Prior knowledge:
Elements: E1 4-8, H1 14-24, H2 34-43, E2 48-53, E3 56-65, E4 70-77, H3 86-101, E5 106-108, H4 115-123
Parallel strand pairs: 4-5
Antiparallel strand pairs: 1-2, 2-3, 3-4
Amino acid sequence: MSDLHIGPASAADLAAVLDFWKTAAEGTSISDDLAGVERLHARDPHALLLARREGELVGTVIAGFDGWRCHLYRLAVHPDRRRQGIGSALLAAAEERFRELGGLRADAMVLDRNERAHGAWAAAGYRPGDQWTRWVKPLV
């Protein structure tokens, strides 16, 4: 895995990340547009982590920290590169970022219907919460 490089996205990467998610991510979000990803990057330029192998984008995760809680979004690995440890490496990098920022617990947004991802999250030590449900209200 020494040829895998994980680091924060640059502003120049953002359009490519959106294209990557069309292939590698499950589902879409109302903020899956260039303006939304640019806002994320402007607010916290280290939150969007990219995994590259030989210069090719092979995985992403958003490791957002609001000063109190650690949130994981958009863990995505290219379908041709899955089961190679890329997702685990991205999660390890995200968790290290959280520790450096003083985070104590991470939570992940995982689609209920994405059963393939459930095993990967469980293998990384994550479990569905049994004490709360996420309530959502679109603002647009």
